[in-house]
Design brief:
alpha/beta, 29% helix, four-stranded mixed beta sheet, 8 helices, 240 residues, 10 strands, six-stranded mixed beta sheet
Length: 240
């Protein structure tokens, strides 16, 4: 089995897009899937409202909620989801990336037959219009035990934007091999496709939230690879 892991932050319409896709999956594929969503303290459109008003998709969806609204806390949200994950492999991605029906079987077979412990895999990516796009730097098929062997994500970066490069560097430093999975792709939806596809509340590279404004984080990025410590530093609750 594989768990799909995604943080959520006021992405009501985007989550509805996932649900419409998930319900179309083949029954045989649904038997091999679980989903964990972590609502990262959405102030306006909590994920529970979307899930409670949707039809059952045919496989388990667990929902957790972070109780403190921390800017750019996606790393902490992923740590919480991986802490709760009960399958050997997890596909960690962002809410604006959809696993389409025609890609599910190849992903399941790859995870069950080909994927090897000690490696993590970056997936191919298309835009919603079908054009190929470079791989997402923070989408991974990861063996859960390998994720915790490196300590998960470093939550010192919570509150800042741009931690994925450090995560990959530390993964490689922990002896994990980065590989590219070209046979499976995710579909990226931009805000021109779905208005709430991604987070809008916090600034990105051109704002004070960018990691370059935090000397301690920049020092970490320039240090030798290390094992992250103290995951899940916030209060949370299970909703569904």
């Amino acid at each position: 089995m594989i768990t799909l892991v995604m943080p959520y932050y006021d992405n009501e319409a985007m989550l509805q897009r996932h649900l419409r896709e998930w319900v179309t999956y083949r029954d045989s594929d649904k038997m091999q899937l679980r989903v964990i969503i972590v609502d990262d303290a959405s102030p306006n459109k909590p994920a529970v409202n979307v899930l409670m008003n949707s039809q059952h998709v045919g496989f388990p969806i667990e929902l957790f909620r972070v109780l403190t609204n921390i800017p750019w806390n996606q790393d902490g949200a992923r740590n919480l989801a991986m802490q709760q994950c009960r399958t050997d492999w997890a596909l960690m991605t962002d809410m604006d990336h959809v696993l389409l029906r025609d890609q599910v079987r190849d992903l399941i077979e790859f995870a069950h037959v080909v994927a090897k412990p000690g490696s993590y895999y970056m997936l191919a990516r298309r835009k919603a219009d079908g054009q190929w796009h470079h791989p997402h730097p923070n989408t991974f098929l990861f063996k859960v035990s390998d994720f915790w062997s490196m300590g998960g994500y470093d939550e010192d970066f919570a509150g800042a934007y741009g931690s994925d490069g450090n995560f990959r560097r530390c993964a490689r430093g922990a002896g994990l091999t980065e590989r590219h999975l070209h046979s499976v792709n995710l579909t990226l939806f931009g805000t021109e496709d779905i208005e709430d596809a991604n987070t809008k509340d916090w600034g990105r590279k051109d704002s004070g939230y960018h990691r370059s404004n935090f000397p301690a984080l920049e020092a970490k990025r320039r240090s030798p690879p290390y094992r992250a410590k103290d995951p899940v530093r916030f209060k949370w609750e299970k909703i569904l």
